[in-house]
Amino acid sequence: MSRIGKIPVNVPSGVKVSFTDSVMTVEGPKGKLAQSYHPVISFEAGEGTITVSRANEEKQTRAFHGLYRNLLNNMVIGVSSGFTKSLVVTGVGYRAEVQGKLLVMNLGYSTEIYVGIPDDLTVTADAGGKVTIGGINKQRVGEFAAQVRKLRLPEPYKGKGIRYEDEQIRRKVGKSGVK
Question: Is the entire prediction scored with pTM above 0.85?
Answer without folding.
Answer: yes
